[in-house]
Amino acid sequence: MSDLKGRVAIVTGGNGGIGLGMARGLAMAGARVVVAGRNAQKSEAAVKDLTARGADACAMVADVTDPAAVQRLVQSTLDRFGRLDVLVNNAGTNIRKPVHELALEEWHQVLDTNLTSAFLCSKAVYPAFKNAGGGKVINIGSMMSLFGASFAPAYGASKGGIVQLTKSMAVAWARDNIQVNAVLPGWIDTDLTRQAREQVPGLHDNVLRRTPAGRWGEIDDMAGVAVFLAGPGSDFVTGTAIPVDGGYAIQG
């Protein structure tokens, strides 16, 4: 149920953090993985990480907020591998300011990177998935899909939007055998959250206090859910949002 041999996956923002953790899971389950990102050097380093584990992976430079670049990414994947089965919409950013300090261009930057990119990439892969008789879309939400934070108005709005976009696509594409689900990571130890710990006083201790597992997540904690949602074991699972958070969301 978790065998992905022969399948091809695009992971946007797969060159680090949660995206790399998911890419590792997909690769170790047998999928061929396209690491898509703007930073070519970082993407090549991620590919070396994957190939060192015996994976078939490649890097493609793409700005996933640019519709033309997204179309090129999908077509290049099809040209190289002859098929496309899985899309992980993971590209993301954050600007930590309260709403009264957030500039309009900063709002657009976060929304475009986190939410509009998922719309563009999903729309671009739809014809290939439909023609192939099915596919899997995995959208990356956040604990901020569920909770509010004074320092994350744009990020929270984008991640709340991810959940609703997931539901809409799941309903629209069910007849095409395309399953669309979201993953809501808890506090995972990444470059992005290390910045958060520097910018938000007390965050580290608060996360540990609220997380029943008693630790921050690691990027490899994201591998299993990626394999499940990309594989045949989730063929009757669609439109859901799965927390991977060590129990953070269940604490009052």
What does this structure look like?
This protein has 252 residues and is an alpha/beta fold. It has one domain (8-183, 220-245): Rossmann fold. Helices cover 46% and strands 15% of the residues. The protein has eight helices and seven strands. It has helices at residues 17-28, 40-52, 67-81, 104-132, 153-173, 191-199, 203-210, 223-230; strands spanning 8-12, 32-37, 57-61, 86-89, 135-140, 178-185, 241-244. Strands 3-2-1-4-5-6-7 form a seven-stranded parallel beta sheet, with helices on both faces. α1 (17-28) packs across α8, α3 packs parallel to α4 (104-132) and α4 packs parallel to α5. The longest helix has 29 residues, at 104-132. It is globular, with a radius of gyration of 17 Å. The N and C termini lie far apart (35 Å). The model has no long low-confidence stretch (mean pLDDT 96).
What descriptors fit this protein?
7 strands; 252 residues; 46% helix; alpha/beta; Rossmann fold; seven-stranded parallel sheet
Quick overview of this protein structure:
Helices cover 46% and strands 15% of the residues.
What portion of residues belong to β-strands? Answer: 15-25%
Major beta sheet summary = 7 strands, parallel
**CATH topology value:** Rossmann fold
The sequence of SSEs as H and E is EHEHEHEHEHEHHHE
> What is the 3D form?
globular
Radius of gyration: 17 Å
Spatial order of the strands forming the largest sheet: 3-2-1-4-5-6-7
| Tally of helical runs | 8
